[in-house]
Design brief:
Number of strands: 0
Structural class: mainly alpha
Oligomer: single chain
Number of helices: 8
Helix content: 40-55%
Distance between the termini: 31 Å
Largest sheet: none
Strand content: under 5%
Shape: globular
Length: 154
């Protein structure tokens, strides 16, 4: 949506996107110690990250930025910023187990190699820079197709 509706420019978030707001999944990314769990053999690390993914999905769906852009463009921009920032943090956290996909996500957010470590996580570290330009969007995960459908298409 940033590529299509904002010409690929990272929007400036409004005050309501601060990490202290409880409805923001960004707060929970910073609050969960998942990054430190990668260093230990703690199986709950993936559960914590995917919990944030589910919460971010709910946040995005409930905020409906595709509707907000018509009625409240500033709020839509904030929702898009918060969502993109959560994706950045999830991608960084996921790199140890999904290096290729996480790398593609970080590429789409124009995150340089120097901004992809766990040190780039937290309340203020490495945040997306409003006004920066993102590359043209591209798919990261292939669409799942049932075997029968794939055979019909071939």
């Amino acid at each position: 949506m940033i590529g299509k509706n904002l010409e690929g420019i990272v929007p400036q978030p409004g005050a309501s996107s601060l990490p202290t707001r409880t409805s923001s999944p960004r707060r929970r990314v910073a609050a969960r110690p998942a990054a430190t769990r990668w260093k230990a053999a703690d199986p709950s690390r993936a559960e914590a990250i995917w919990g944030v993914v589910a919460e971010a999905n709910r946040y995005f769906a409930n905020q409906a930025p595709w509707q907000l852009r018509k009625t409240d463009p500033e709020r839509a921009a904030t929702v898009l910023y918060v969502t993109a920032e959560v994706i950045r943090q999830i991608a960084i956290l996921s790199q140890p187990v999904m290096p290729g996909s996480a790398g593609k996500l970080l590429d789409l957010l124009a995150i340089p190699e120097s901004g992809r470590s766990f040190a780039s996580l937290g309340a203020h570290a490495g945040r997306l820079a409003p006004g920066s330009t993102l590359p043209t969007p591209a798919g990261v995960f292939p669409r799942y197709v049932e075997a029968e459908e794939a055979e019909k298409s071939a």
